[in-house]
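Repro:
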Amino acid sequence: MIDSLLLKLRKRDVVSPAEEQALRDIINEVEDIPARKTVVRRGEPLNRSILLIEGLMCRHKDLRDGGRQITALHVTGDFLDLHGFTLKQLDHDVMALSPCRVAYARHDLLTRLTEVHPHLTRLLWFSTNLDAAMHREWELSLGQRTGAARAAHLFCEVYTRLQIVGRLDDQAYALPMNQSELGECLGLTVVHTNRVLRELRELGFVQFSRGRVVIENIEGLKAYAEFDPTYLYLDAVPR
């Protein structure tokens, strides 16, 4: 269940056999989640955190008029609400965008782990810091990048994250969301999103259709987006 999580962690630091076993010991209660189901609601008390084994999930915040902003995407191997361990409730909702398989880590088991495995605790803390780094990059996109550059940057980010956990199919990957949901990631209307996707397609960079991204020129896409993966902290260093 934790193989993809281990790939992510070992990309950034060493995980010892004892630490791997400690992670395996706290992950349990596997559940299959249907697409478009909300799995965590804003303000509800939390006593466990979610490991995404397979699928695509998102965090989002809503307005009373029905407007929605997707604030993060989570892919296979993400421990997607570790911050709920200390916050005890979230200020946003978490939803499955595709059929997902998840497992849970109870907060009392996480507490015990932090008391016994300080280095592993730092690695999990790193995961929440990484979430914050990605959030800052999304904020930069929303505030300063053009619509097409926002989409290009998002496609590059997801490409890189899925590459780490072995979920690329050559130069393509699944991104099971419609244009409306993609627009909610990018802060664009459906009409603008359609125009942006057409622009990237005509430039020969990428095609997005029926929940699948096909990269035709990854270096050109990265250059167009000014994609610098430094914020993903891909170097293995002691933490």
